[in-house]
Amino acid sequence: MRRTSDSSGGDTGLRSGPGGSPGGARGRAAGTRSDSGPDGGPGGGLGGGPGGGPGASRTAVRGSRVRRTAVRAVAALAVTAAVAAVTAAVPARHGGPAHPPGSTAKTPLAVGYGGAVASVDADASAAGIEVLRRGGNAVDAAVATAAALGVTEPYSSGIGGGGYFVYYDARQHKVSTIDGRETAPRSATDQLFVENGQPLAFADAVTSGRSVGVPGTAATWQTALDSWGSRSLGDVLKPAERIARDGFTVDATFNSQTAANQDRFKDFPATAALFLPGGQPPAVGSTLRNPQLATTYKELGRKGINAIYRGDIGADIVRTVRKPPVDPASTRVVRTGDLTAADLAAYHAKTQAPTHTTYRGLDVYGPAPSSSGGTTVAEALNILEHTDLAHADQAQYLHHYIEASRIAFADRGRWVGDPAFEQVPTAGLLSKGFAASRACLIKDDAALTSPLPPGDPAHPTPCAATGKAAPTTYEGENTTHLTVADKWGNVVAYTLTIEQTGGSAITVPGRGFLLNNELTDFSFVPASPAVHDPNLPGPGKRPRSSISPTIVLKNGRVDFAVGSPGGATIITTVLQVLTEHVDRGLPLVDAIAAPRASQRNAAATELEPALWNSPLKAQLEALGQHFTQNPEIGAATGVQRLSDGRWLAAAEPVRRGGGSALVVVPTR
Q1: Which of 13, 174, 338, 556 has its CA at a distance of 20 to 30 angstroms from the CA of residue 346?
Q2: Residue 121, by phi and psi: left (phi above 0), alpha (psi -120 to 50) or beta?
Q3: Which member of 479, 483, 497, 569 is catalytic?
């Protein structure tokens, strides 16, 4: 079954300051090697690539761009040190076990032929490379990578969650998407998180069966494989099944995430048995195995996704949600959910057209609602197109980026929800005319005040903020993102999630995976009693998401693709990476690493330490901007097609312990 869409244009580069993710680079296992890649040439190493810092990436990125002193000055030394610290050439390894724990260091940059994979985890990226080496395409490799992340990044992803999948078909020059967002039970009402007339405390709602939506990840995988893949689900699950069975090496990030959830995890015996061996977080350097998940993946591959949506795995999910298995000694009040077998059977992943806008001659595609990512990134880009960001100084660039984000989030909050339930003016939010009516609110010498009232896409009024203002509701910040390209030029940008770090904290007994708490992405009550909230719960409704996997085309072919985890900060992370690459001339790996700011129609803009401690903060405060500090915003990955036909894969050098960028046949 084929999907709808259209196509066209893209551009280049990136960099960032260390957000201070706990725990340094991960030491996880690599995949198998072959003696030659699909494009011929030497077998190369899974972790190859140029292995240098930002300077190495500049030589690889197509074209020469003007680099402004102010841009390069911000945290340049910090970035160079961060990239150098985690960019080590990986020695070739032929034969032997596929995933011996701790065999491969991470690198945030790789360049070469045959395809590319970038994710947060070395095992997961290697799983995707393994599939590409065996002749699979980008879709096959993306599913393999995602399944491996379900093992090694179980607090961010897995078959207990959902996500959004964006695909570029090189043969048709067409971009399509899959909405694999979780859905509320059919019994859900707008009072789902209200008790005794008051909204539940967020923490109480999260760690409960009530927060669990119908998982969409497995349906997304099968829909993608049926539509564009070349391998069976069982085939592409094999690398992840092997990692789950044989284990992976625990790093400091995994250890710290476990420790942060220890009080929740210990209250659920199945979760504690898996993630708290001996009652404590697994030690850094130890091997964590998940044989239950290996068995679950094997069953899923053998029986297909009906094992979840109409079979035994689904029955176990329903039983767990309706009666969460809590330790009898626990004093935690864990609310039950109302998920049913009928809810699972009714679920489908939606194949649909992407959002589309043009920017500086490029074509930018993202996920349409129920995600707000595509519309909000596009609206902000349309607003920023009215300013010459390439020649602005760094303070003015950041000021305009912050203000465009503020405006786009004001409109997102008022208009975007699940289009099956809400009248979402997608075309209006994407229109250049509406953006022009909003762009003139921005002044060079003064900041806007939040919450900013929304505009009306149906009746754009220049420079007017005529609606009633409502604050931006909270959205959890943990997801994971992967980006994949193959030798044929097909590209996948895929962001998947279980919402909170650790999701609901409830592991399905005997199955080895955590359940999501995605329904807490709904507004518990209207953000403002005077403003219609399109994101209230409803029967079968998808909660609004900020997931923003983005593919950028230039002249109908992929130029680059990027995405990030981070809840509502996903939108601002993707927007900042895009503008710093396209407008400011930073190479992709540098734009991904660059210090970030995030404004989401809030009183204060969040800044990472590298910006907080820079002179830019005072310059922006002089314009009326207000700030709070956030130690880490997002954790992006991307791929880029270079002018000589090579692929560049880029990942974070530091955030979340650093990412893993791999290519099939590395070159220098």
Answers
A1: 174
A2: beta
A3: 479
